[in-house]
Amino acid sequence: MNVLTIPSQPFSDQRPGTSGLRKKVKVFQTPHYLENFVQAVFDTQTDLKGGTLVLGGDGRFYNREAIQIILRMAVANGVQRILVGQGGLLSTPAASCVIRKYQTDGGIILSASHNPGGPEEDFGIKFNTPNGGPAPEAVTEAIFSRTQTIERYLTTDSDPLDLDTKGSYSIGAATIDIIDPVEDYAALMKTLFDFDRIHQLFNSGHFSMRFDAMHAITGPYAKQILENMLGAEPGTVINGKPLEDFGQGHPDPNLVHAHEVVKLVSGPKGVNFAAASDGDGDRNMILGHDFFVTPSDSLAVMAANAHLIKGYADGIRGIARSMPTSQAADRVANQLGLTCYETPTGWKFFGNLLDADKITLCGEESFGTGSNHVREKDGLWAVLFWLNLLAVKQQSVESIVKQHWGDFGRNYYTRYDYEGIDKSAAEGLMDHLRNLLPTLPENNLEQYQVEFADDFAYTDPVDGSRSEHQGIRIGFTDGSRIVYRLSGTGTEGATLRIYLEAFEPDPSKQMMPTADVMQPLVSISTSLAEIEARTGRNRPTVIT
Ligand code: G16
């Protein structure tokens, strides 16, 4: 085996977004494009030399080729040991688990999450630090800055490795271990949840569920844990085979894209409980019979009931939510005498709070919940948490959530997405809102009185780092809110997100259709931002 030095030149567009570098597959296939980014990781994360790297992805198109490229580069850059998921597969939370369990020097995860896969679709890459979490901004900026000066990358002339057979292999001085992608993760789940009790629930004869893996990474994990370990009936996991193009679906677990499982939990023949996860297994959607749990409510319910779950029986230290996530979790924290941290969008902002033991649970409106067990959001973990809760409480999902609203008040919530709009129009719209901010406080917008209006900035309470321009917040005196921000995960044009939240403390008014409750906030938010005039759109692409 020989180490080769290949001359290269910078690409200007390699700054990671909300979660790593995401581009069309075709962009990643441009000669040297992937290699430059990977070399920038090795050049800046110097502990990898002589250290251990975890490597895996969500199995989407180009995953296998990328794994072979990165393996050769890792060997050439002096990585001593590389742990690779069999078949090149590792869900994002499982990668985080493996990075932590074997005290490695970090991991490279290949995924574009919930974005579609295939030759014309999306691919992505991100580096996770030794705590198992997505690299914080200081690290992603260092990687980006290195990509801007890169002149060469290192690789080897070694043959492709057989990714499908578990075992230990050597290339030069490096050892490559092809590991079972599910085993370590399943063992961790067993320490957190009462598997016997969930097993009894599945065998009670009056409970059944469906889990939609959406032909993405969680299929093998869900089959092993739900069907083999917990005794759920065969067929509980649907669309369980990971496919490179996700069966031409859009592996985003929401009411629109996971419609197959929504159907199975609806109507007189519907099952009691259903869930879905995304491309790389870190997102989740929770459904009761004819009942959708918003991700914001899911976090709040988990926080209020964590003491009932084995792994959290000693109580939780604190909670964090991303800024656009509803304030339902804040109400729980308040009652428990805990702090609820409000962070910018992006799981990377939870890492320091978890490492410093300031929080135990965290979550986002974008179908993500997690805890201190790993440093990524975790789809299947959330499903097991709910299963454990159902087994303990012996209540339906709907009655648990309605009881929660009765106790804490209901934060009605909806999100409007305007996808693929013109980038400069989107930036102009955000500037326009920023200019309006000083005029808003103490004004009335229809029946709402503005309490505060700002451009959200965050100072990390652990390391003092500052993140500016994280979204426009308009808060009203009754606890309702409008939030605007531009997505950092898209690969085409810009996506404007408007997040709306209306607080209702009165139980007699908590069963209204969300769309009706939200109507005044929808009209305020669209006219304030001059959406139609600025973007040419008279309706959003997706409403969740
Ligand atoms: C990523 C991040 C999340 C974020 C989501 C949406 O999730 O890890 O923290 O909430 O993107 O971000 P945006 O609103 O900027 O598109 P994932 O599941 O895509 O990795």
Q: How is the secondary structure organized here?
A:
Elements: E1 3-7, E2 21-24, H1 25-28, H2 33-44, E3 52-57, H3 63-76, E4 81-89, H4 92-101, E5 107-110, E6 122-128, H5 137-147, E7 152-156, E8 167-171, E9 174-179, H6 183-192, H7 195-202, E10 209-212, H8 218-229, E11 237-238, H9 259-264, E12 273-277, E13 284-288, E14 291-293, H10 295-305, E15 319-322, H11 328-336, E16 340-343, H12 351-355, E17 361-364, E18 368-371, H13 379-393, H14 397-408, E19 410-421, H15 423-436, E20 444-445, E21 448-455, E22 458-459, E23 466-467, E24 472-476, E25 481-486, E26 494-504, H16 514-528, H17 531-535, E27 542-543
Parallel strand pairs: 3-4, 3-5, 4-9, 10-11, 10-12, 15-16, 15-17
Antiparallel strand pairs: 1-7, 2-6, 5-6, 8-9, 12-13, 13-14, 17-18, 19-26, 19-27, 20-21, 21-24, 22-23, 24-25, 25-26
Can you characterise this structure?
It is a single chain. By secondary structure, the protein is an alpha/beta fold. The chain has 3 domains: 3-181, 3-Layer(aba) Sandwich (Alpha-D-Glucose-1,6-Bisphosphate, Chain A, domain 3), CATH 3.40.120.10; 185-408, 3-Layer(aba) Sandwich (Alpha-D-Glucose-1,6-Bisphosphate, Chain A, domain 3), CATH 3.40.120.10; 410-543, 2-Layer Sandwich (TATA-Binding Protein), CATH 3.30.310.50. Helix content is 32%, strand content 25%. The model has no long low-confidence stretch (mean pLDDT 96). Bound molecules: 1,6-di-O-phosphono-alpha-D-glucopyranose (G16). Residues 18-19, 113-114, 282-283, 322, 345-347, 364, 366, 368, 487-489, 497 line the site of 1,6-di-O-phosphono-alpha-D-glucopyranose.
